[in-house]
């Protein structure tokens, strides 16, 4: 690993005890984020993408059991860290942006106080420095009249502004890693592009690693340096955004791409591609490929055994028994049809 | 209406990964079976209920039959005077105490149940109407609730009883008046949360009448809360009835109400403690088991289940 | 206004439109604070549009643009304060809500809140029949089964409760409930935005099929322009309660004229890894609808605003193939 690496995760698994048994929310997930790099984790609800981010932040529910071979942030081992040490890490070295800014800002405190609190609490400086930093960041996130805004309460701001506040708050302590969980899902389309632009340019400017969790393929394609497609708690395909979108190797990725209407590409009124079947419940022993019930290319070999990630090139891997050539042929025929 | 398209029948195949999710009634049944408090409380309540219902068959004597030659016979375990003729002894007028207790269960359960039920109907209607309509209607209903909360309940009940007398019907109505507000407060706030759901809008868009929406769509979602409150209020009603009867303001003698038994046994407390112990224990066990059952119902019907 | 509507190329201008709005407006009186005077909030203003049988009308715009209020008026749940809504040429304020219900039915966004959790699928789908006292218990059951098949719900689910269904299945239940009255118009309020992408495709395909099979008219409210482009025949763009552009979907998507429509279209993020993020020039968020800007409501955010825009409000005029409300087009 290079000195550039911010976060390194190897074989992360999260098991949750539920009445029916053990829920394997995340299985053997490995990922790496470099400085200034954006990793997009994409998948549908229940695929384990949010649990992964909570696991990195050590915010998992108490019933969840985390195991990993390696979990380091800036070469610090997070697995052995105490809860108090973690608390000082969160908000300082790791910043988090949630989907709904209204619930992540405290409604009874002024925006300014909340921003400054983060700074002061992590011992970055006093009230005065904190105020200066807050005003500087508000300007950076494109808020006019920052001094006035700082004395307002969250409910006085629109959704777009609140999300900018959250971005500013995340940057207060100059974090090494930002985790954004569906940061623009609650926003209007026009606000979405602006907010993402902002997030991207600030992340590059502050040279932080960014993990962007989303179900929106459009956001992924435009934002990601690297993409990880998750299904049923596993990574099923990884690669750069170009590789994954231009030449998907896993049938699930291909299916997802075919599902969405794209102006200028899909014929209006035509039939959209769709993935039949249901998402597995992930309880009990999981054997074979988890996508087999929904896959067009399923064979008997898919039903049992451990299907591992096959690496095609550095950083490019997929979890399927089809060889890269086979998948290329089969999937491209389908994509064209 | 065209024929359904074959492609859609794909959905009819049972998926390999499909697992059975229990329906709400199944889920409740499952939770009920594993809830110890509910089972114990429920069994005791059922026991009392059976005793009350079958009292005419089970009771060895008529509870009103006086036998002055056998006054104040102690229970059977009193080695000196106890007799199997009167397992729980007799009272000051020679009436069989076991029979009186059994018939007393009738009074307690009847008053408790009907007081809880009448107040549930009245209170929930008021609460749901306020919560559903909002605005001025709601303001008026909040005003009613506030007035009720400002009244000293027990004093009002005492004065009402002294005015209307202690018939069972009067007691039920007076106790209902004491208890309706809690239903109203809870159902009102739950209804406010339910009202904003799209299934209510969908029903409105069908032209469904308001009464039908409240009864058909809102009520099933409020029912659990109503049952929980009802079980707890029933326990309180039983205690209040006993208290009123003890004070001589409730059920009138010679009706065998437990509160009245306590009151009658009071003068013999130091010589014949069983006269106090039996009705006291009966009230205690019935009330605590109703409360256990009510707690159980709350856990069983809770949306996420408690641990 | 109404004469104006017919001229820019409705294919069948003599036909009576399935749904028509004539200068529809709705004002709410909002009380801000305990002692404040009530203020008028113009949620919808002067909206005129029409759509023929079997066509899809998409209403797009940001949250707060009045599309949900408009939808409620189409369903007869809110009365317009001005103007009128016509179904098959008949004004709806003259008919009871039960009669409106036979022609217009809704499908909502969130399939978790649109189904009563305490009722079985059969009870939910048959509710319209019960409310309108149609059929016996047995005939209603048969009809429910028929419509479950139509929307692709396995028969075995008939006695299930909503919590036992997936999001897609729940939305199918909602669609079946809407269709069982055999309405002509279905008002779809963001019907797929709460669903996963793979499920969204199923539901969109289903809506397409149903439209063809049953000759349905959809009023399709959405902020997802990719979905709108895929489904709609006509597009109405709303901004702060006003209709600012209305025309054929193909025309609007190929050649958006209003600066706001252009900005909306630019904001669509297609899954193209080779493209970066678009630069959107719309500065701030929506202005306060209680105190809308002077002149054109859009001028504070408009990159092409001139002095005229802040001074006088533009009128909705016909411009070639569409209606538009903007000073840039004469």
Short characterization:
The complex is a heterotrimer of chains A (337), B (307) and C (330). Chain A is of the alpha/beta class and 337 residues long.
* Terminus-to-terminus distance of chain A: 42 Å
CATH architecture of chain C, please?
3-Layer(aba) Sandwich
H and E string of chain A: EEEHEEEHEHHHHHEHEHEEHHEEH
CATH class term of chain C:
Alpha Beta
Q: Helical amount among residues of chain C, as a percent range?
A: 25-40%
Q: Note the main sheet of chain A.
A: 8 strands, mixed
Read across the widest sheet of chain A, the strand sequence of neighbours is: 7-8-9-3-10-11-13-12
Number of domains of chain A: 2
Q: What's the CATH topology label of chain C?
A: Rossmann fold
CATH architecture title of the largest domain in chain A = 3-Layer(aba) Sandwich
Name of the CATH homologous superfamily of the largest domain in chain A: P-loop containing nucleotide triphosphate hydrolases
Distance between the termini of chain C: 16 Å
Please give a structural write-up.
The complex is a heterotrimer of chains A (337), B (307) and C (330). Chain A has 337 residues and is of the alpha/beta class. Chain A folds into two domains: 5-93 and 173-336, Rossmann fold; 103-172, no CATH class. Chain A has twelve helices and 13 strands. Chain A has helices spanning 49-57, 83-89, 101-104, 111-121, 127-140, 146-150, 159-171, 189-206, 217-223, 241-246, 251-259, 324-336, and strands at 5-18, 21-34, 38-42, 64-67, 70-73, 76-77, 94-97, 177-181, 209-214, 226-231, 234-240, 310-313, 316-318. In chain A, the strands form two sheets. In chain A, strands 7-8-9-3-10-11-13-12 form an eight-stranded mixed sheet, sandwiched between helices. In chain A, a hairpin with a 2-residue loop joins β1 (5-18) and β2 (21-34). Chain A starts with a strand and ends with a helix. The mean pLDDT of chain A is 87. Chain B has one domain: MetI-like (MetI-like fold). The longest helix of chain B is centred in the middle third of the chain and has 37 residues, at 97-133. Chain B starts with 23 loop residues before the first helix and ends in a 6-residue tail after the last helix. Mean pLDDT of chain B is 86; it is low at 1-10. Chain C is α/β, with parallel strands linked by helices. Helices cover 31% and strands 22% of the residues of chain C. Chain C contains eleven helices and twelve strands. An eight-stranded mixed sheet of chain C has the order 6-7-8-3-9-10-12-11, with helices on both faces. In chain C, strands 2-1-4-5 form a four-stranded antiparallel sheet. In chain C, α4 packs parallel to α6 and α6 (167-179) packs parallel to α7 (197-214). The mean pLDDT of chain C is 87. Classes of the chains: A alpha/beta (337), B mainly alpha (307), C alpha/beta (330). Chains in contact: A-B, A-C, B-C. At the A-C interface, α7, α8, α9, α10 and α11 of A face α7, α8, α9 and α10 of C.
